[in-house]
Design a protein that fits this description.
It is built from nine helices and 15 strands. With 278 residues, the protein is an alpha/beta fold. It has a nine-stranded mixed sheet, with helices on both faces. The protein has a six-stranded mixed sheet with strand order 9-8-7-10-12-11, with helices on one face. A hairpin with a 4-residue loop joins strand 11 and strand 12. The two termini are 33 Å apart.
Length: 278
């Protein structure tokens, strides 16, 4: 892959989108220092910063306490999109369909199923032992004895695998069984996400670009894993992180430094140095 230093068309960038875990964030999920100042600097240059994540909006707002009111968020892998804290798109799953996924996961005896209902989530009381991990992503969790009869508006089912074997579960169970009904993707080694077909980070970026009146060619995006591929494949400046698996190199134009080297900030600084304040 080409080095990030070979991207010489930075002046054309109008939107910068980044994944969170293992992309912007350090391995321990901490935010690199100085991100708020970089987002402000981009804003001053007419460049919209976007967090593009499998996380729902409440978690992303907490990650950007000083900036969320003047940035974009492609949440839930594209199932909701916000600009300046205002929703511009919200998807909704069929109740029978999300119930079929939840039932399958419960019956399998593996994984911690979570139903994402926009600003809140539903999980089973039996899985409370995993609250520490699940609550990183879902802030208002309703613990139930059973999902049976649950009928709420929701846009995503996520399944957490404490054994970090999500790819095996994806390959052997969930893609074969649900791939013709839902978009199924691995969000790292420990999560599988289920959304409606046609919903992914790429569709979220298309909606954001249309809303902002920006060409996809003028968007930069950073990612490290499977659920980032639909976004990386459609933007004009696609950066794969140095810590990403080699198969991801087929989906990026440029290789950025790793998340532990704060590669996103390194590229943002190049953009900020190139584009003058408006």
């Amino acid at each position: 892959m080409k080095s990030y230093l070979e991207d010489q068309d930075l002046a054309s960038i109008k939107i910068v989108a980044t994944d969170m875990d293992l992309t912007l964030l350090h391995d321990d999920k901490s935010m690199p220092e100085g991100i708020a100042e970089r987002i402000d600097a981009l804003y001053e240059r007419g460049i919209l910063f976007c967090a593009a994540s499998g996380r729902p909006a409440p978690a992303l707002r907490l990650s950007f306490p000083n900036n969320h009111a003047r940035m974009a968020m492609v949440c839930d892998n594209g199932a909701t999109v916000y600009v300046n804290d205002n929703p511009i798109y919200k998807d909704k799953m069929d109740v029978e369909l999300y119930q079929s996924v939840l039932t399958r996961v419960v019956e399998s005896g593996e994984g911690v199923p979570v139903l994402c209902a926009y600003d809140e989530a539903y999980a089973l009381a039996r899985d409370y032992e995993h609250h520490g991990e699940v609550s990183i992503y879902y802030k208002a969790i309703n613990y139930l004895e059973s999902f049976e009869g649950l009928d709420v508006d929701a846009n995503k089912v996520s399944v957490y695998y404490p054994a970090w074997n999500s790819k095996e579960q994806f390959d052997t169970v969930y893609q074969p069984e649900f791939g013709d009904k839902l978009y199924v993707t691995c969000a790292g080694a420990e999560w599988i996400d289920f959304m409606n077909i046609g919903i992914d980070k790429g569709s979220g970026m298309r909606r954001l670009a249309e809303h902002a009146g920006v060409d996809l060619a003028d968007i930069a995006a950073f990612g490290d894993t499977y659920n980032d591929i639909p976004m990386l494949d459609i933007v004009g400046h696609s950066y794969v992180m140095g810590n990403a698996a080699e198969h991801m190199h087929d989906h990026g134009m440029f290789l950025a430094p790793s998340n532990m080297e704060e590669g996103v900030l390194t590229v943002l600084d190049r953009i900020i140095e190139t584009v003058p304040v408006k």
